[in-house]
Amino acid sequence: MENFNMDESKDDVLREELFSTQVKAGRRTYFFDVKETRTNERYITITESKKKFDNEKGKFIYEKHKLFLYKEDFEKFVKGITDAVTFVETGVKPEIPEIKEEGEEYSSSYKDIEFEDLGDK
User: Fold this and answer.
1) Average pLDDT of the chain?
2) Residue 111 falls within a domain, yes or no?
3) Does this model's pTM top 0.85?
4) Alpha carbon 31 to its chain's center
């Protein structure tokens, strides 16, 4: 009964976890799983599992959403989430420098992007 927001190959779903931990938060549970690619590169899947009542089936189901985080993005991801948590806790916006290097996408201009603008590519 899994409901994923992205297409996954059976290979991704069946990969054995090298490490797994979970965080329970009300009706949601977050799973942090470390897996390995065929080329032995480690990555993290973050899964949000939310308990919902399905009126049609008359029972509770678990809606799941996955995020794949690769090693080359860990530092940027941690910086982004740390900045967001700091703002939530303090109300102070952290300094986010413009990065002008080719291929870098992290900048203070992110606030002007809407999810609807991203579209399906």
Assistant:
1) 80
2) no
3) no
4) 10
Q: Within a domain: residue 42?
A: yes
User: Which contacts (CB < 8 Å, 24+ apart) does range 35-41 have?
Assistant: 41/70, 41/71
Of 80 and 7, which is predicted with more confidence?
Answer: 80
Give me the CATH number covering residue 90.
3.10.450.700
Q: Is 96 exposed, middle or buried (0-12, 13-18, 19+ CB in 10 A)?
A: middle
| The pLDDT value given to residue 2 | 41
61: its two tokens: 């189901």
Half-sphere exposure of 87 (CA within 13 A, CB side): 10
Spatial separation of the C-alpha atoms in residues 90 and 103, rounded to whole Å: 31
Q: Is residue 107 included in any domain, yes or no?
A: no
- Which of the four pLDDT bands, split at 50, 70 and 90, describes residue 3? very low
The per-residue pLDDT for 58 is 93
Taking the CA atoms of 84, 86, 90 and 93 in sequence, report the sign of the dihedral they define. negative
